[in-house]
Amino acid sequence: MTILVTGATGYIGKRLIPLLLKEGHTVVCVVRDRLRADSHYTEDDKVFVIEADFLKPETLKNIPKDIDVAYYLIHSMSSPSKDFKSLEQQCAVNFKTYIESTKINQVIYLSGITNEKELSKHLSSRKQVENTLKSDVYALTTFKTGIIVGSGSASFEIIRDLVEKLPFMIAPKWLNTKTQPIAVRDMLTFLYRAAGNKTLYNTSYDVFGPEIITYKGMLLQFAKVRGLKRYILTVPVMTPKLSSYWLYFVTSTSYKLAISLVDSMKVQIIGRPSQINDILEVNPIPYDEAVKLAFEKIEQNGIISSWKDSIISSGRLQSSGLHKYINVPKFGCFKDYKESFVKDPGKTLNKIWAIGGKTGWYYGTLLWQIRGYIDKLFGGIGLRRGRTSPTNINAGDALDFWRVIFADKAQQKLLLYAEMRLPGEAWLEFKIEKNKLKQTATFRPRGIWGRLYWYSVLPFHVFIFKGMINKLSKA
C-alpha cells in the first residue's frame, strides 16, 4: 500500500515510518520543511518526501492522489499560540478537503482519551478534530490514548527530570489524578497494524496500558526502576499557574507546554475497554517495564525521536521553518570570527558533532550553564533540553538553547540558530575548509537594547569563543 504520514518529523511519525517500511509499504512523508527530513528516508526508494503545510491549502497540491491510507498525526500541544484550537481545526479541515480528492480508503487519527465530562482545552480540541475528520468518502479509524511512555517522549523526560533531580517533592494535588499510560512500542503496534484493516473502518477505540495509576504512582515507580528513594507530599495550595512554574523551572519543558500539561493532568484519563487488543493482537506491557525498555534505548544511544526536537516547541521557528535562517545575514550584524589550523579534520568534525548536551561546549561550560539559567529566569528554554543523540545531528534538532539549521558532515559544516531570549537573532557556524576550522558567531541586534547586549557580553565572547576553537582544533 501507499501510505501518507503527516507529522512525519514528529515524535510518533519518525518512529512509525520505519515500521511501515518494514511491512513493505511505500511511504509518503509530508513535512513543512524539507531540510528536516532525515537523509536516511530521502535515500530510500520507498519513501517520498513532500513539503506541505496544512495551514496553507495551496501547498497541498504536491501530495499524490494515489494513496491508500493516511495517518493524521498533527497536534499543537506545545504551540505558543493562544488560538491553537482554531489552528488545529483549520489543519483538519484543509487535510480532509484535500484528502477526499485522492483515492484514499482509510485515515488513521491519533487522539486523546476523552471520556470525562469536563475536558482540558487540548483534549477538547482533539475531540473536535475527530468529528471534523469523519467523512463519507473515506473510513476513519481513531485511536485515543493517554500518556505515551518511551525514550524522548515529553511525559517520560519530565518525569525523569523530577525523579532524578528531586529526592523530596512538594507537589500539587493533581499528582493524585488517575491515568493509564501506554508504552510507545505498543502505541506504534496499534498504529501500523491498523493500516488497511477493514474491521477498523469507521471505528474509535481507547488504547491504554494494563494499569490504572496516579501521576504520583508513576513518579514513585519510575524512581524504583532507577533504584532511587523518593518522597512526595501533595498539597492543595499549588494553583495551576504555580504548578506550571514548578514544572517549567525543574524540568526541561517550555512554559507553554507546562501550562498545557497541567491543564490536561487535572483530568482523569481512563480508557473504555474494548476488543481492540484481541483484534490487533497487542498485549500492552506494564508501566515499569516500559520505563526499563526506554532506558535500554537511552543506554544504547538508540533514541529515534524526542519531543524536544519538535519545531512547534521552538517559539521562533514554528511559522517560518528552517529555510529562513539558513542564509546568515551579512549586513547590520556583529560578528566574532575565529579560525585555527586543524591537524586532523575528522577528529575535529567528530568533536563538533558531539558539542552541547552532556559533552558541554569544550570551554567555559560553566558560563554557558549560567547563561542557560539566566535564560530560564526570563522565560526562555535554558540548557535543559540537551540533545537527543550524543553523536548524531540532523537539521531541526534541538541542541541546548540552539536549533540545528544545517548539518552536513560531507560539507564539514554545522549551523546553529539561537532560541534563547535575546534582543535580536544569533547564529553559530562551524566549518572546516582545507585543514582550517572557521568559527563564526553572528548577532543581528534589535534596536538599542540589542547593541547594548552585544557590547555587554563581548568580554566573555573574547575568551569563550577563542578557548572553544582551540579545544576543537586539537586532535
By DSSP, the count of extended strands is: 19
Main-sheet strand order equals 3-2-1-4-5-6-11
Task: Assign the structural class, choosing from mainly alpha, mainly beta, alpha/beta, alpha+beta, or little secondary structure.
Answer: alpha/beta
- Could you tell me the strand content as a percent range? 15-25%
Shape: globular
**Low-confidence regions:** none
C-alpha Rg (nearest Å): 23 Å
Major sheet: size, sense and barrel closure?
Answer: 7 strands, parallel
What distance separates the N and C termini?
A: 50 Å
Counted by DSSP, the helix tally is: 15
Percent in helix: 25-40%
How confident overall, as mean pLDDT? 85
Features:
475 residues, 6-stranded antiparallel beta sheet, alpha/beta, 7-stranded parallel beta sheet
Describe this structure in words.
The chain has 15 helices and 19 strands. The protein has helices at residues 11-22, 39-42, 84-99, 121-133, 154-165, 184-194, 215-225, 240-250, 255-265, 276-279, 287-299, 323-326, 345-353, 365-377, 447-473; strands spanning 2-5, 26-31, 47-51, 69-72, 106-112, 139-145, 148-149, 168-172, 178-179, 182-183, 203-206, 213-214, 231-235, 334-341, 398-399, 402-408, 413-418, 424-433, 436-445. Strand 5, helix 4 and strand 6 (139-145) form a beta-alpha-beta unit.
